[in-house]
Amino acid sequence: MTESLLLSTDPIPPKERGPQWCEWVWRHFGGLGSDLYGDSEFEGHIAASHAGDVILTRLEANRHRVLRTAQMARLSEAPYLKIVAPWQGSAEVTQRGRAAAVRAGGWVLYDTTADYRVENPERSDHLIVMLPKDQIVSPSLPLADLLARRIGGDSGISRVALETMRNTYLELPFMSEAAARGAGELLIQLVRLSLMELAGQSTPRTQREALKDRIQHHVAQNLHDPALSIDGMAQALRCSKRLLHSAFAGDDDTLTGYILHQRLAASIRGLLDPANASRSITDIALASGFGNLSHFSRVFREHTGGSPSEFRRQAAPR
């Protein structure tokens, strides 16, 4: 896997570097204003790669600052939570009336769907990590209280998260696409656990729930694949099969049962959808992740008491 983006002011005439840098920042970070503290000289480099849904960017530059207004936030195409984790230099993040300064060894989280400001008052070498917001937040996580707060990387899960962010970025050029995607999913899990710990929620139960959320997301993303398995999931999520099963301990469903019921629910939705009126039952079953029609028909009858064709006929008038 190679760098997906590499930008440098080195070949640009000195007088054009500042404006060019501001344009790059605007485009790469989805509409972000910037300025150079009025400096006439500037040098900067941006190198970015994707780890699945996670974007990791190394930003080396002279002092500068960035600003996202409320209007810019509304124009943003995708909601991200963003992390700045300095290798060198410092950064100060201001959001929701709170400010947090961070140097090497720590990181700060902020939300791209709201206005914010990031000051980089000296030459810096920062790792910027962008994570899909909907894969981090949950009703039990008080996100507003966790923004613009320094998260220490000295010990605990936040240190594991910081080191994993750095190592993932450095190793991405040597990873396959599948490995990079798995590394991105691991980062999402570690950041979520770090935020739970910061919020005082780091208990075995909440960690199990966080893992369960991650499993359910993986199942939803791969439900159509008949090869979806516990072994493959353990490899993709970088954990043991025993840990995967433990996330469903005490539930009415086992992990295997959960996958089966999700496939059954997807097939029922497909059969009920008027847009699929001309689509064959076999096609709908395969699209829901069942390996063959006979297995689908048997499971369907066990759970509904009738065949898929009977179900479809009865549902058609409604």
List the helices and strands and how they pair.
Elements: E1 5-8, H1 14-28, E2 33-35, E3 44-51, E4 54-61, E5 64-68, H2 70-75, E6 80-88, E7 91-95, E8 98-102, E9 106-111, E10 116-120, E11 124-132, E12 150-152, H3 156-171, H4 177-198, H5 204-222, H6 230-236, H7 241-246, H8 255-272, H9 281-287, H10 293-304, H11 308-315
Antiparallel strand pairs: 1-3, 2-5, 3-4, 4-11, 5-10, 6-9, 6-11, 7-8, 7-10, 9-12
Helix pairs in contact: 3-4, 4-5, 8-9
Structural features, described:
It is a single chain. The chain has 318 residues and is α+β, with helices and mostly antiparallel strands. It contains eleven helices and twelve strands. The protein folds into two domains: 198 residues, Jelly Rolls, CATH 2.60.120; 109 residues, Arc Repressor Mutant, subunit A (Orthogonal Bundle), CATH 1.10.10. The strands form two sheets. It has a seven-stranded antiparallel β-sheet, sandwiched between helices. α3 packs antiparallel against α4. The N and C termini lie far apart (50 Å).
